[in-house]
Amino acid sequence: MSNDEDDEWINCDRHGRGRCAIVCTHHVQQRVQRVGFVENSDDPNDLQAWCFACEQFFASEGELTEAFRAFNDAFVVCVPCYYELRQSHWLASA
Predict the structure, then answer these.
(1) 37/51 Cα distance (integer angstroms)
(2) Phi then psi dihedrals of residue 66, to 5 deg
(3) How far apart are CA 28 and CA 35, in angstroms?
(4) From the first residue on, what is the mean pLDDT of each consecutive set of 10 residues in the chain (94 residues)?
(5) Cβ contact 19:79 at 8 Å
(6) How open is the CA angle 41-47-48, to the nearest 5 degrees?
């Protein structure tokens, strides 16, 4: 297996070895309040999401700036964790 293929996998403490997905740090840090869940890819093999605050910050920046990357602080999770976070943070858009 090549290093590129290894980069697509993560060892999750809860779910074991699985495919990687990306969420913002706010999804992982916020345990009580729903922060929204904006999926950033329609490719089912490329799961990426961020919260409503990240969506607003990105819109104000107009692109993936260093300030946005610092605010978003992307977090790698396994696919089952991604779907759990999606369920926990999903809100209807305003």
Answers:
(1) 5
(2) -65, -35
(3) 10
(4) 64 96 96 93 89 97 97 97 96 63
(5) yes
(6) 70
